[in-house]
Amino acid sequence: MADAISVIQPPTVEIAPRQKKPRGEVIVFGNWCKGCGLCVEFCPTGVLALDEADHPVVVKPENCTGCHWCDTHCPDMAIVVRRIE
Amino acid sequence: MAEHILDAHELDVDEIRIPRENWFESSETLQKLRKNKKFPTIWCAGCGNGIVMGSLIRAIEHLGLSNDEVALVSGIGCAGRMPVYMDFNTLHTNHGRALAFATGLKIARPDMKVIAIMGDGDALAIGGNHFIHAARRNIGITSIVINNAIYGMTGGQYSPTTPIGKQATTAPYGNIEPSFPLCELAIAAGATYVARSTVYHVLELDKYIEAAIRKDGFSLVEAVSYCHTTYGRLNKFGTAPEMMRDLKKNSISKAAYEKLSAKRQAGNSKIVRGVLHVNDEREEFTKLCRKLTEQAQGGGRQ
Ligand SMILES: Cc1ncc(C[n+]2csc(CCOP(=O)(O)OP(=O)(O)O)c2C)c(N)n1
Ligand code: SF4
Ligand code: SF4
Ligand code: SF4
Ligand SMILES: [Mg+2]
């Protein structure tokens, strides 16, 4: 996750002035997740997507607002959001 | 704008509570759950039962109760599996008898927070009698009924909350029986705290479950959920996310409902979410029991 954050840091302010900082860090526990798709379907900012095996993957970490929709609605406690201050 | 944020505007601001920071990692129960060999649960992918379980865990954590102070009692059914996954005192009993066991437990251990988790069939069909009499006595049990309008575990037989006209394996031409309004039944029978929300509005459930556990008397939280595997499939309601979306669309907050005209209220077919009833007058049953015992012991020998 730390890598993902550093990757989106713009090299200079001029090149990517509107680049957002994520406000939440999302972790999916693969062996608990049943791939129901609720988190993907309802994440308001499109942070997650289902892969070919129907498992959620974080595709846009920078979009996470830390709203906790996904981790309070996951029926299998398989996703956790940690807020980034 | 985010769909669930729009929903938040329908609610009182006080009604929403953002989960405590890092609630997942700081929850001892969840940390234990994670190491528990019983995980993952038997529930179908996307079933609302697990969402209610998360809500219950957050409510107990928020109250600061130790695991030993809490007893979870359930019967049989998909909803009834819930206590199996958690590290509280648990009683997994016969179908329909959660409240019968919970009543015995509460009388023996009035100091305990006794929580009965039931399905709609469990609470209202086979267990209907226990339900109304527990409410009539106002015994200090918190009941959480996960209402998915069907017998989920046994393959989709209609329950006392299946709406008229809907398909079930035992109603291939559509159900013709009117349903029991769960909350109204509890209020009429004497429950002293009654609230309802849906698994979509899970942060409301957190608050209602917490208030219900606090309440010294018979309390009910109806958690409206869905069973996409049996009921949903038979009625072509689609996947879990689709049924989740329907809960959002087909429900209305109590505050918004009360603003409707009398005519529109009468015609309302949406699920009304909110605290529907509180009675602070009635005394709790085990307290009355103790008073009676003291009276009989003191008075009898004079
Ligand atoms: C005495 C008895 N009768 C019938 C059954 C079969 N049975 C098991 S679960 C169930 C109904 C479950 O429906 P509900 O309570 O709504 O729970 P859900 O599975 O929908 O969560 C029935 C009839 C049983 N186990 N015991
Ligand atoms: S909601 Fe939970 S179980 Fe469902 S896909 Fe997302 S992480 Fe997996
Ligand atoms: S916390 Fe909110 S924004 Fe972040 S991934 Fe979960 S649902 Fe999406
Ligand atoms: S059968 Fe229905 S109620 Fe039972 S686990 Fe599956 S979806 Fe949930
Ligand atoms: Mg049911």
Q: What do these coordinates show?
A:
The complex is a heterodimer of chains A (85) and B (302). The two termini of chain A are 15 Å apart. By secondary structure, chain A is α+β, with helices and mostly antiparallel strands. Chain A has a two-stranded antiparallel sheet. A two-stranded antiparallel ribbon of chain A has the order 2-3. The longest helix of chain A has 7 residues, at 2-8. Chain A has helices spanning 2-8, 38-42, 69-73; strands at 24-28, 48-50, 56-58, 79-83. In chain A, 20% of the residues lie in helices and 19% in strands. Chain A has three helices and four strands; from the N terminus they run H-E-H-E-E-H-E. Chain A has a domain at 28-84: Alpha-Beta Plaits, CATH 3.30.70.20. Chain B is an alpha/beta fold. Chain B has one domain: 3-Layer(aba) Sandwich (Rossmann fold). Chain B has 14 helices and eight strands. An eight-stranded mixed sheet of chain B has the order 2-1-3-4-6-5-8-7, sandwiched between helices. In chain B, helix 9 (202-214) links the parallel strand 5 and strand 6. Chain B is globular, with a radius of gyration of 19 Å. The N and C termini of chain B lie far apart (74 Å). Chain A binds chain B through residues 29, 31-32, 34-38, 41-42, 44-45, 67-69, 71-78, 80-83, and chain B through 1-5, 18-19, 21-22, 24-25, 30, 33-34, 39-41, 43-51, 53-55, 58, 199-200, 202-203, 239-241, 244. Magnesium ion binds at residues 119-121, 148, 150-152, 159 of chain B.
CATH topology type of the domain at 28-84 in chain A:
Alpha-Beta Plaits
Class based on secondary structure composition and strand pairing of chain B: alpha/beta
Classify the helix fraction of chain A into a percent range. Answer: 10-25%
Largest interface between protein chains, with number of residues from each side: A-B, 27 and 38 residues
Unreliable segments of 5+ consecutive residues of chain A: 1-17
